[in-house]
Amino acid sequence: QVQLVESGGGLVQPGGSLRPSCAASGSILSFSVSAWYRQAPGKERELVARMSRSGPTNYADSVQGRFSISRDNAKNTVYLQMNSLKPEDTAVYYCYQVRGLRDYWGQGTQVTVSS
Fold first, then answer.
1. Are 113 and 16 in contact (CB under 8 A)?
2. 18: exposed, middle or buried (C-beta count within 10 Å: 0-12, 13-18, 19+)?
3. Which residues are 76's β-sheet partners?
4. Is 73 helix (H, G, I), strand (E, B) or coil?
């Protein structure tokens, strides 16, 4: 059973940066897809960034140029570098991974952008 543990959320002022991380219980080399989603209060969960072993990296239009997804295979960890944060980026951020025919979600980490 794969476990994903997120950390690195928090409170930041507009214009600031955060880098949530998602640590997997096993090797992430076997994951075909790594992604971050977010869910703001009263809204549906939405895709923020997605990367796959064999395809391009995709970003939501609202974060393009500000966020960057990356993987450190040696640490079995996926990151989401978030720069130039805005109040509308406030949400719970979830890590998502696909291995074979199964997908896995982390427990979420709260990101709050406020002055």
1. yes
2. buried
3. none
4. helix
